Amino acid sequence: NAGVTQTPKFRILKIGQSMTLQCTQDMNHNYMYWYRQDPGMGLKLIYYSVGAGITDKGEVPNGYNVSRSTTEDFPLRLELAAPSQTSVYFCASTTPGGYTFGSGTRLTVV
Amino acid sequence: KNEVEQSPQNLTAQEGEFITINCSYSVGISALHWLQQHPGGGIVSLFMLSSGKKKHGRLIATINIQEKHSSLHITASHPRDSAVYICAVRKLETGNQFYFGTGTSLTVIP
Q1: Band of pLDDT at residue A98, cut at 50, 70 and 90
Q2: What pLDDT score does B55 carry?
Q3: Tell me: the pLDDT tens digits for A27-74?
């Protein structure tokens, strides 16, 4: 099993550009999450999903959108990139036993 | 004030020392997770606790629900234990969302 796969690992965006961060899991987990991690701060929840077709906002959803058309995929969309979105992004899925995280995407907006 | 507080923020230990990292939280929870983030950025789930104590190899995690406190212990520490250790709680009233401490950065010196 690959677990949770995130792409890309690194990306530089110009202000105003758009991009999609991809997240795929092959464990048939219903619960999936997108977090951002800023230096010196705890992980902050952007969006989460409890199953295909169901998504909900977390603590810091502004500037982002998600979709969950299948159990496996949970992409995160940035429509108009801003410098405040420079961060490391993690996708994760959970079972009652614990978390599985993707390897992260380091995004810089210039 | 964060709902999840960890101490210490930074910790340096000699190889072989017994290490304790603390996590206090101020809300009702249904579960608490301990995560490990290595210098490369990857995050691994160590434990999920809702009561009592769990042990895995040299790692021990305990939780006291009444005192809203959890500890992560590392026995016979080793340089490969150097990482950031993160506490995360699932709040009772927001069952699908987790809230994270800012992490404890551990360095174990040979």
Answers
A1: confident
A2: 96
A3: 989 999 999 999 878 899 999 999 999 999 998 999 999 999 999 999
Please state the separation of Cα B25 from the chain's center in Å.
12
What pLDDT shows up at residue B1?
62
Chain B residues with beta carbon closer than 8 angstroms to that of A42: 2, 4, 86, 99-103
Q: Are B69 and B63 in contact (CB under 8 A)?
A: yes
Q: How far is B98 from chain A (nearest CA, A)?
A: 8
Residue A41 is predicted with a pLDDT of: 83
Residue B105: name the closest of B76, B79, B85, B81 by CA.
B85
Contacts of A43 (CB under 8 A, 6+ apart): A35, A36, A37, A90, B86, B88, B100
Compute the count of residue pairs across chains A and B with CB atoms less than 8 Å apart.
Answer: 50
- Type of residue at A60: V
Q: Which residues from chain A sit within 8 angstroms of residue B47, using beta carbons? A: 98
Residue A15 has a pLDDT of: 97
Helices (H) and strands (E) in chain A, counts: 0, 11
Q: Which whole-number Å values give the CA distances from B6 to A41, A46, A67, A104, B33, in the listed order? A: 12, 22, 33, 23, 13
Strand pairing class (A105-109; A10-13): parallel
